[in-house]
Amino acid sequence: MSFQPRMHNRISGFKVLGGLNRREWNGIIADVWDVECEARAGGHYVSDDPRMFIVLDAQGGSRCNVRLSPDSRGTVNSGHQRVLSYIPAGMEIWADVVDVSYIRHLDLHFNIDILSRRLMEDLDAGRCDTPRLMFEDDRFLQLARLIAAECLNPQPLHDLYGDGLTLALFIDLMKLNRNDGRKRSPLASWQLRRAVDYIDENSSRNIRLEELAALAGLSQSHFSHAFKAATGMAPHQWQTNRRIEKAKRLVLTGDAPLTAIAAETGFSDQAHFTRVFRKVVGTTPAMWRRRQML
Known about the structure:
The protein is α+β, with helices and mostly antiparallel strands. The protein is 42% helix and 29% strand. Helix 3 (138-152) runs antiparallel to helix 4 (159-174).
């Protein structure tokens, strides 16, 4: 089953060498890129699908930072030796690369709907919403190199080979075991209230899962499961909905342009705001406002 990954970015200082090398398997798309970098390069990225970014080769380099906000706050890690990142759907990141002259990287895009049907109850959606940024793991790198070789191979092997490699990497990434049938307990009422109040107070910025988990006194994985059991949605989905509800009020009660509303509600720009608004509400902010005025 085919799907089209939806990545939105604004980058500078990168030049793609050659063409895109892409392979698609059942629920996973793999891209290999060769990129030439200026002395300072970087960009803003957000994807509608979960993805994994793996550096296979890099030349030079004194620093590689990943940030969760456009300013210097929320820097996750530094150091070009740490070459793997898993980014959940809808999570915004900003990247800075300093003095790296060349990068070859593998991007893996995951269609959770397809993978959920393949893995059934063994796939815990809470894990899909937990980021892992700038980490090292030799096992992942070995699988990634085999996947990249298939992307670059002019005569690739049977589809089951690449499918098996990518699915094995995803299963390892999600730490999937056979479901033991245990029912997930929801957050206690005080934990839920503390979390949702914190989200309301900080909805205009990206809130890290570890912040919410700390408020509830739980691990990130436990909190993610328990929050979804209590609300029916993942923490980042809840925050997105709160942003959209705030945006609706601003759209109806003032004459502020959409660019200002996007900034006030924590979206990177008007295009990102409009895209998320349409996904959640089913129409654009302008069209929604006209309908409300009828």
